[in-house]
Each structure stands twice: as C-alpha cells, then as structure tokens.
Amino acid sequence: MTLDCIRSVFAETKTAFEIIVVDNASSDGSAEAIASQFPSIRLMSERHNHGFAKANNIAAREATGEYVLLLNPDTLVLDGAIDKLVDFAERKPEAGIWGGKTLYGDGELNPASCWGRMTLWSITSQLLGFTSIFRQSGLFNPEGYGGWPRNTEREVDIVSGCFLLIKRQFWNELGGFDLSYVMYGEEADLCLRAHELGARPCVTPVSQIVHYAGASETVRTDKMVRLLKAKVLLAQRHLPEWQKPLALALLRLYPLSRKIGTSALGRGSSSATWGDIWRRRSEWWNGWPELEHNT
How far, in Å, CA of 20 to CA of 55, rounded? Predict the structure, then answer.
C-alpha cells in the first residue's frame, strides 16, 4: 500500500518535492521494497515503532521545503491533488493549515477529511443519540459537519492528519504533534493550538485523495479505547473551563449509553462491544497521560 502511495505522488505531482518516509520497524519487507524501487527518497528505517505522532515529528525535522505535507501511507493521490493543495494554500495563506477531500477506495465520499471541534453540545448530542439519529443535521452532528458533502471550500476546526499541509515554519512554531497523544487526537490538538495562534484551517474539494481508512485497524474495542483516551485529553486541554466538569462526565458516560441503547434496539453484537469498552473504562477514564517532554 505504501508503494502505491509513493507511485501516486510521483505520477500526480509537478510541484518540486522531497519524500521522507519513516518506516516504523516494519517486518513485512516494506523498507527494503521502498529502498529498491525509490532510491531517490529519504527513507528512515527505525528500530522501534514510534507511532503516528512521533514518526511525523521525526520526518518533519528532516524536511527542507517551505511546506510540510503529512500523507498517510494508505492513501492515493488523485489528479494533481498535491499541486492543487499548494495552490489553495498560496491563495488562502491566512488559513495556516490546509486539507483536501478524501474518498474511500470505491470512490464514495469519506467525510473524515475534516471535522468540528468537540463542545459540550456535541458531547450531549452524541450521548442522547441525536448525532446517530440526525447524522445529516449540522445542529445535531456538529463535529461531523452533518449534511455538508465536502463539495465547497470551507473553514473547518480540524483537518485530518492523513492529508494535511502546513508551512514548515508554522509546524516548528507549534512544536509539531504533541506526543501525549499516543494514537488519535494528534491533528485535532495541533489544529486547535494553531487556531489559538490565529490560524483558520480550510479545506478544498478540488484536491482529492483516496484514503483506505482503517485498513490497519481490526479490533473495534481497542480502537474505541484509544479514541476515548484521546477525546478525554482533548476535552481536558481545549474545552472552556466552565464546560469541563459536565462535558467530561457526559463523555465518560457515552460508552454506557451506547451499550444500553444498542441493547434496547436488539443489536446484541454492538451492545457487547460497547459493554467491553465500558468494562475497560479504567484504561481511558483519565485520557492519555500528559508528557512534559515532547520531541
């Protein structure tokens, strides 16, 4: 999959670029294949799996261009997407962070290219089931920008780290990703910190990639435990002080509400999954531990 991604970058990009690949201690021969097929790129074969955040920080430190583009290995660049994204950035420099439109492998819209920040209202809406019932509503699904098919340029709160463009100077000013977020939440924290410094992240529909999202994620329970750890830390850091006590209480009750709700609807398998997540609440209740040293 990584090889296809690299091929698509070379095939679809005219803007001058360098590619830096951090191989997180893979054992499937990926590093050897990359070195053999693409000798011109910078390959950093690591002895340890650093995870998403640290691997990107390592790569960005080696970058020399004006911009840094984060691009997941499970993506394909379509129709000059990188060129179009750079053009968009040049046209809207005030955004500070730029993203495009993501599609699933079958060509259908993948709405996870961007999303809204977590608020007391968005947490309440999820807890009460409004977000699931009224998924196309911007009122009841504010984090998912419900009802917006990603077909217009728009200012957003968070741009997905699978396809995120930022000026290298601004990335360095922000200190890159915060390594407290072991998995999930990295780009949300980055974009929210950027917003505090005046950035207004934007996305454009003309810059499109395929993102085979979740291709490496096989266990839903484990994924949700990690996601909840990230969401708790994001709430602790970025919600207004007056919202935090109630918002955190509601957020922590969300898995239990899902267990009860899916059980009432006769969805036994889903209810069992949410039950497992609730039983593992000691793992995610307090979020990821905050790290003082983030390099």
Answer: 10
